[in-house]
Amino acid sequence: MDGQPGHIDQIKQINAGAVYRLIDQCGPISRIELSKRAQLAPASITKIVRELLEAHLVQETEYQEVGSRGRPAVGLILDTAAWHFLCARIGRGSITLTLRDLSTNVVAEDTVDLPAQSELPFLQRVIYEIDQFFNRHQQKLERLTAIAITMPGIIHSSSGVVHRMPFYADVRDVPLGPALSEHTGLPVFLQHDVCAWTMAESLFGASKDSQNVIQIVIDHNVGAGVITDGHLLNTRRHSVVEIGHTQVDPYGKLCYCGNHGCLETVAGLDNILTLAQQRLPLSPQSLLHHQPLTVENLCAAANMGDRLARDIINGVGYNVGRIVAIMVNLFNPDKILIGSPLNQSCDILHPTIQTCIQQQSLHDYSKDLVVESTHFHNHGTMPAAALVKDALYNGALLVQLLQG
Ligand SMILES: [Zn+2]
Predict the structure, then answer these.
(1) 236 confidence band (pLDDT: 50, 70, 90)
(2) 180 Cα: distance to centroid of ligand 1 (angstroms)
């Protein structure tokens, strides 16, 4: 009977995760209601709930059921304060560390420098900063469940290896996940920041009620995350959809990936600021003269009707829109989310993208499609928090906590 115990463990894990998720999302909820919604026998619910109670992952509470005037019922809610987890985001030159409880509330947060150049290797520096964070906040620490880290780059999330990162040129196949796990004794979750952000929007943000979502990130890098049937699309090793390296101009600039005229070379923030700089002498009336050329100033000028600034943002919209229109035909989503500092000019950017989609993809797929801004921004650690939530909901982390 090869493999059978594994199979049973897997069912146990999935059921425990599903029950935990229902308590989190619908609590206070009675055992009877849990049994109905999870489609599990009352005896199974009793057993799973008992284990969750013993591990202090859920607690009982009295509540008045809707429409009932009788005695209060006993329902279950999460017990979140007794458990903490660490979230981290590595950006360009800094690392943000956030200690959260299981409700994702912030207990402590610091952002510290993590320069591109250093005498110490990247791995050692990250571990050092995490140790320092724990030392600084020792007084507030409860039982730790996990560490989750998000970052840009080429990341193999299941093995925890960071192959390459933009900005940190010395990063080459760094085993960050396994090394950190060995150092702390905790499970470590690693994910590309676009994917984790897509999960965060789906769990707590703008795509909470959608099962099929395309999330486009336009920042220094350009990428996408796709949710199909409620799950993050995973292709072999990677789940980030590399739209940034789709060719939009065969005669365009050389991209760091080795190809020419990638979407990122025309829509990435650094590149649009360079383009604005080049076109500025041809627009003597532009509001962009005599002020630092930043994304904030570009958007502010566009919102005030500045022609050059509007042109630049519309250009991003057309180029991104063309690729999104192809993705709409492939995935037939309910919603397109745009995560970008350019959302400061969303009244210009979003309609341009929407028009491209309507003109360039199937009418049936695009007619009810909405384009909107993400709820979170490309900083902060809610994406990392989403990795931990996801691992609790699918049962993988939950079972580890139940086993102590
Ligand atoms: Zn490229």
Answers:
(1) low
(2) 31
